[in-house]
Amino acid sequence: MNPIYHFCFRVGQEEFDAILGRIKAAGIKYRSTVRGPVDMQVNTQFGNIYWNEPDGHQWEMLTVSYARPTR
Fold it and tell me: Which InterPro entries did the record assign (predicted)?
């Protein structure tokens, strides 16, 4: 069995909107929580979404850092 990886990247709001547009255009299902249902929503706390590749790898895109508080 191959390992499953979680890839996360932080982007600016304009990049987020452009990438989300491409995800939607490609028909990729996404969700607002790491293990929740496919709700096709953006998590407003961190401005993030999650989606999985067919082989199980999980991707995350966010606009707010988990490590640094907003000012």
Answer: Glyas_Bleomycin-R_OHBP_Dase (IPR029068), VOC_core (IPR037523)
